[in-house]
Structure formats: C-alpha cells, structure tokens
Write the structure tokens for this entry.
Amino acid sequence: MIRKQITTAVKLLDTGKTVAFPTETVYGLGADISIPSAIDQVFKIKGRPTNHPLIVHFSRIAQLQYWAREIPPAAWKLAKHFWPGPLTLILKRSSHVPQNVTGGQDTVGLRIPNHPVALALLNTLGDNRALAAPSANRFGKISPTTAAHVYEELGTSVDMILDGGACEIGLESTIVSFDDQMACVLRPGGIPLTLLNTILNGQVTLATSISLKTRASGTLASHYAPSIPLETCLSESLLQRTLELKSHGLRIAVIKCSASDLPHVTDNKIAQFLMPREPSSYGRQLYATLRQFDNSNFDYILIETPPNKPDWLAIIDRLQRASHIK
Ligand code: TXA
Ligand code: MG
C-alpha cells in the first residue's frame, strides 16, 4: 500500500508537484530542489518569504559531499553519529544546491530524516536528488505532527499528503552550524545539547539568542504560534495569573507540567491540562496539544514554565517563540 503511494509521490515530485511527508520530527512540505517552479510553490503554499532558507533532505550519508563543500571533521562526526536523525547541519553549499533553496545564502541546511516513509521516498528518488522540506505549516504557525494537521494547515494546496502516523519526536530538528570548525547550535531540537557535547568532547556552543533563562514573553518574533495568545508563567504565579485573566472574562486553557491542581479554580471557563513530566514525551505532545486548544473554545493559553534544565531547552525555546504577549 505505502509502496504504491511512494511511487505516486515520486511521479508527482518528478513533475514539480509538492508532497507532504512524515519525518521523525514534524511533517515536511516536500519539493524537488532542482525544479525552480516546485520551490516557488513551497514558498507560496507556506506564505513564507523567499529569503528564508529551506532544509534539504536526502537519504545516504555518502551523498553529503554532493550537496556540501569544505565539510569540517566535526560535521562528519555528527553526521555519522546522528543520521538518519533529527539533526540539520548548516554547511557551505555545493554548486548542486540552487540558490533559490538557500534564500540566496552560500550555506545549506542538510538532513537525513529518520522515518521509514521519508527514507523510502528519498531512496526511491535516488542519488543526486533531494527534497526541500520546510515544516508543512503556514508561515509562523505550529508545525504539524500528524497528516491531519497538514491537511488542516494546507488543505488541497499541497498535491499529496503521505500519512506516516504521529511524529515520534514532535519538535523540529536540532540545527548546528560551524564557525571556524566550532559547532554552534542555532536551533535546539530533537537532539539534546548534552548529547552533541558528548560526541564533540564539549566543543559545542549555543547561539547567543538562545538561553535557558526565562525571558519576558513577546521579546521574540512570534513563531510556532497558535492564533490565540499564549503566555508562559512560573509555577508559583500560575494561580494568581489564572485568576487575573479570569477576571477579564477570558476562557483559559492552563497547561501544566506539575501535578498539583490549581485550588479554587473549578470553573467552566478554565480547563486544566497536565503534560508529561519527561521532556521527550512532553515534546512529542506539545504541538498537538497547542493545536487542540487553539481549535477549541478558548481565548488564552497559559503554560506553566517547564523545568529550567538542559533537556528542556528545545521546549523552552518553542514556548518562548510561541508567546504572543506584546
Ligand atoms: O525537523 C525539521 O528540521 C523539519 C523537518 C520537516 O525536517 N523541517 C523544518 O524546516 O523545521 P523549516 O523550514 O520549518 O525550518 C528550517 C530552519 C529555518 O529556521 C531556517 O532559517 C533554518 O532552518 N535554515 C535552513 N537553512 C539554513 C541556512 N543555510 N543557514 C541558517 N539557517 C538555515
Ligand atoms: Mg518551520
């Protein structure tokens, strides 16, 4: 069944059409990087500015040199250890990567995803071919982690959606760039920083814009965001903030990661939802949970700030980006 769908998908991609497909992180909106009209279509469907670079997906590590040049040893080390997997490497692009895919930059984001459907699709495409695949959501919105979410985001503007079930990781890949051979995490994601550091003997830095410190909501450009306001709130202030928002007549979804119930707020305007206490399970469920409350009858999402620990970095990053407060 899936084999037949892969054949159909490849035929569509061959003719410049778009195919959404599952990866272990989130669903991607795929197009053949060598067909300019297909890449134009990706930007158009997503509503994304054309200078925002796309990640290039392929299936065999031996092909890394086909897509990138001057690959530092640290990049090889990470690729060999984590691919297929939730890691995107930013490297100097080879002449095989068209500039419209990289938003005009001389670097390219490269990744081998770890999902049987994605790998089957990329393997069937074959060597020297690759798919640009940004997350299959409209620009600035929450990434899809099921095929139904993709349909909800993009409808029939995408030519085919391959259904591979719910994504195992649920948050986007970790993006690593190399500055003077030194690895730098641009976007925390599926691979924890601690694990990268183990492989590269502690030689990994974190881009200065990312931090474990809780920042004021809304200081970042809104991204990965639901359409209703979302605010993160420390555990100790959660009750007070809920009551404050309630006094404005708002219907509030309170998303918690500690089990204690909010006292005195049994109220039909307030829903309390408990997330897993373990970061990989929390990450897997986060986008689906935000989407669920975004689609329900609520005016406001209030999220308990997760533990300020390295394993929670990707989650904290996404929550900060999703905060809407100006
Ligand atoms: O997990 C993922 O990475 C998913 C799945 C589908 O593979 N894809 C994904 O793509 O999240 P997208 O387009 O939603 O996010 C790509 C990010 C953007 O923030 C983009 O700026 C960054 O990767 N990026 C891509 N190429 C880059 C480059 N050459 N230099 C710096 N950043 C780059
Ligand atoms: Mg995205």
About this structure: The first helix runs from residue 2 to 14. The CA atoms of residues 191 and 222 lie 23 Å apart.
